Give the backbone structure.
Amino acid sequence: MNKSTVIDINQLGDERGLLTVIEEKLTIPFEILRVFYIYGTKEGVRRGFHAHYKTRQALICVSGNCKVYLDNTKRKEDILLDTPTKALILEPNDWHEMYDFSPDCVLLVLASHLYDAEDYIRDYNKFIEVYG
Ligand code: T46
């Protein structure tokens, strides 16, 4: 199983402002089948609380900032996403929770698979059974 990593995305820009490009397979190491974004998250709310069987995702804060707690059964860590030029490549075997959303946070998520509720492991004991 791959390890989740943070990658830098290049930033283009000139006197008019900034521009960041995401290209399938070049910037993001998988085919992108689905895009969604999380925004308007209320203060103090924690989201996620699951892992996946097969979906790989790239999480990018295109506005504001938030944190992501990761647990792959062997190591636990907290990642700060605070710039549109940083992507967390989130592997299926990482239990994840997103928290500390700033009021202006827009968290863009690029996913390798279409939505399938069966791809979620929402029970922590089941997660340990599958990946521990
Ligand atoms: C993830 C983190 C980073 C859909 O119908 N289609 C979709 O593509 C998605 C993503 C969600 N939904 C429905 C399922 C729920 O009824 O929207 C509702 C909220 O989804 P959920 O509670 O799973 O949201 P989060 O913020 O806990 O997790 C989401 C993604 O679901 C998940 O894949 O890894 O963002």
The radius of gyration is 15 Å. The CA atoms of residues 36 and 132 lie 29 Å apart. Residues 34, 36, 38, 47-48, 57, 59, 109, 115 surround dTDP-4-keto-6-deoxyglucose (CB under 6 Å).
